[in-house]
């Protein structure tokens, strides 16, 4: 009887030791040398209830697919998530803020680890950002900014300095045309009304040209960052004041490409009769610059995927992030175009 009891006790201890070992190893799964690479790419994220290792889940609300820049941005995010072993839940809002709200609410329901949003416009975000905060999910703002009174509603904002981009475009126009005695008539194709790049690129441009009395903005109109609207709005500018237009400042390449078609159909030469300054730096814009149809492109970098995944990883490791992460960018002119064309990554 006593020896039976000892055997049962012994087997029980073995069972306890085995269970402890497997639970312990599940949170340090990547320990052998072959698994080191996997350990680098797949972030160890311990599920508090289960003690399991699973990838970080990121819910990303992309604002749309309105431009070549946006498509490059989406590809960069998808590729970087895969590379980092982060599970990406991706929603395209088709330029609609209410669709972004829907996507965010579904991310909250899914209990994702981190939410990131590229907001279509700046206003109207405070209530939904509060919902995210109440759910205890950290939020990263990407590309465009939100206008909220409480900046603790998001962790960090990663993206370009759009104001500086507008200033760079203005400086190009000053260098090229401010010495002219006569009035230089400028038309502006704005992006989506109320969006950060449209607001800031417009302001930066105005702030630098305002010192030069001969540089005059004749007309400015939003064209939603799309080729089709860029063409249509430029056509209406030309019909109203064709001969007074010396410069087109376009807030992105897609609208500039649409405008080039409108200018040619009107019988003028883009890049010669009308100087064109655009923003983004897509391959197609570089091709037009190499043909002499665009004069200068201010770069705006869409390849934000790696920065976003790094921020997500650091956040999940409990590190604090700077409130603002700015992507470095350049300016290109016709003389550089031939060398650069085809080398662009987007
Ligand atoms: O927010 C970035 C801007 O959005 C890019 O300049 C434009 O091409 C895009 O649609």
UniProtKB/TrEMBL annotation:
Signal peptide positions on this chain: none
InterPro entries documented for this protein: Peripla_BP_I, SBP_2_dom
SUPFAM superfamilies, per database record: Periplasmic binding protein-like I (SSF53822)
Molecular function GO labels: carbohydrate binding
Localization: Cell envelope
One CC-aspect GO term: cell envelope
Entry keyword set: Signal
Span of domain Periplasmic binding protein: 63-319
Predominant location category: other
Superkingdom per UniProt: Bacteria
Family: Belongs to the bacterial solute-binding protein 2 family.
Name of the molecule in the record: Substrate-binding domain-containing protein
Organism, as annotated: Paenibacillus silvestris
């Amino acid at each position: 009887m006593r020896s039976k009891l000892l055997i049962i006790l012994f087997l029980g201890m073995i069972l306890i030791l085995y269970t402890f070992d497997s639970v312990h190893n599940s949170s340090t799964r990547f320990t052998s040398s072959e698994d080191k690479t996997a350990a680098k790419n797949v972030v160890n994220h311990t599920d508090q209830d289960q003690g399991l290792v699973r990838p970080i889940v990121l819910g990303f609300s992309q604002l749309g697919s309105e431009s070549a820049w946006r498509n490059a941005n989406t590809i960069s995010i998808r590729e970087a998530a895969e590379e980092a072993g982060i599970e990406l839940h991706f929603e395209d809002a088709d330029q609609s803020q209410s669709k972004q709200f829907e996507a965010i609410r579904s991310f909250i329901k899914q209990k994702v680890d981190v939410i990131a949003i590229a907001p279509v416009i700046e206003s109207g975000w405070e209530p939904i950002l509060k919902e995210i905060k109440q759910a205890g999910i950290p939020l990263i703002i990407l590309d465009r900014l939100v206008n909220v009174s409480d900046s603790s509603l998001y962790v960090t904002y990663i993206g370009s300095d759009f104001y500086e981009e507008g200033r760079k475009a203005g400086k190009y126009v000053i260098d090229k045309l401010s010495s002219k005695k006569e009035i230089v008539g400028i038309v502006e194709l704005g992006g989506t009304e109320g969006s950060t790049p449209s607001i800031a690129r417009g302001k930066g441009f105005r702030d630098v040209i305002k010192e030069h009395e001969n540089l005059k903005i004749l007309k400015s109109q939003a064209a939603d960052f799309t080729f089709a609207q860029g063409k249509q709005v430029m056509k209406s500018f030309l019909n109203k004041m064709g001969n007074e237009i010396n410069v087109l400042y376009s807030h992105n390449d897609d609208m500039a490409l649409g405008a080039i078609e409108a200018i040619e159909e009107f019988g003028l030469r883009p890049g010669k009769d009308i100087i064109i300054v655009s923003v983004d730096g897509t391959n197609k814009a570089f091709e037009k610059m190499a043909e002499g149809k665009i004069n200068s492109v201010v770069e705006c970098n869409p390849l934000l995927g790696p920065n976003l995944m790094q921020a997500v990883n650091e956040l999940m490791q409990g590190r604090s992030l700077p409130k603002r992460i700015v992507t470095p960018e350049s300016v290109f002119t016709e003389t550089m175009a031939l060398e650069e064309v085809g080398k662009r990554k987007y």
